Automatic annotation (TrEMBL):
Keywords: Hydrolase. Gene3D superfamilies: 3.40.50.1360. It comes from Marinoscillum furvescens DSM 4134. InterPro entries: 6-phosphogluconolactonase_DevB (IPR005900), 6PGL (IPR039104), Glc/Gal-6P_isomerase (IPR006148), NagB/RpiA_transferase-like (IPR037171). This is 6-phosphogluconolactonase. One of its GO terms (biological process) is carbohydrate metabolic process.
Length: 241
């Protein structure tokens, strides 16, 4: 990772705005744009920004939305990444319903991981057996997890599946996640990470020190694609000193 892969904004709001403008500009360049969304805190601000500032954008017609991970709960549950996106974005912008490809959180996790994996390979270009997203948006948890690849299941970074079943280490909540190889096959991966709570982990990952090798986020490096980290000043306060 190099410093020029970091786009640093003043705070979480400015980070979401900078990334939102970039996302919509990238989508405008393509005939179809397949993007995987994340859950977590920063995307909430992003979705509010897009709903307020891009409600009439032509890009919604050609954007196809997927998720990097989902909690295995019904789509009406407060924990559902899909529900958060629907409430904040899809209910407010003209995305065709057929362009929204959610992970069915109400289904059996193992069956759903297989079904979603095949859906992805039908929906987009496949290279070396892996679907190629135009962009995967990721968060990073305070423990260094990304999507739902947690430190205790770091082997999912090398999974031979497109999607896997994962378990949250504290709550035991079952998730379905993209596997590491699929994330790294994307044309572009963007981390959206804000707040001082993430500073220590970013510092360790960037300088390859401390526990960096146990953090799944350390190993997200697109094979043939671009990697960017959209962060705020608090998240990188000590990193480049
Ligand atoms: O559980 C999850 O957490 C991560 C990070 O979320 P954040 O609130 O710390 O930004 C997120 O990327 C993932 O999609 C979500 O399911």
């Amino acid at each position: 990772m190099t410093k020029d892969q970091f786009i640093i904004s003043k705070d979480a709001q400015a980070t979401a705005e900078a990334f939102g403008d970039y996302l919509m500009a990238e989508a405008a360049k393509k005939e179809q744009f397949h993007v995987a969304l994340s859950g977590g805190s920063t995307p909430k601000i992003l979705f509010d920004y897009l709903a307020e500032n891009y409600a009439d954008a032509a890009q919604w017609q050609k954007m196809h939305f997927y998720w990097g991970d989902e909690r295995m709960v019904p789509p009406t549950d407060g924990d559902s990444n899909y529900k958060m996106t629907k409430d904040r974005l899809f209910d407010k912008v003209p995305v065709p319903a057929e362009n929204i490809h959610r992970i069915l959180g109400e289904e059996d996790p193992a069956d759903e991981a297989v079904r979603y994996g095949s859906l992805l390979t039908q929906q987009m270009n496949v290279v070396n057996g892996l679907p190629v997203f135009d962009m995967v948006i990721l968060g990073m948890g305070g423990d260094g997890h990304t999507a739902s690849i947690f430190p205790h299941e770091i082997e999912l970074l090398q999974s031979s599946n497109v999607c896997d079943v994962a378990t949250h280490p504290e709550s035991g909540q079952i998730r379905v996640t993209l596997s590491g190889p699929v994330i790294n096959a994307a044309s572009e991966v963007v981390f959206l990470v804000t707040g001082s709570g993430k500073q220590e982990k970013i510092d360790e990952i960037y300088h390859q020190k401390g526990g960096w090798e146990s953090y799944p986020a350390s190993f997200i490096k697109p094979t043939d694609g671009k990697l960017q980290w959209y962060v705020d000043e608090a998240a990188v306060a000590e990193v480049f000193k």
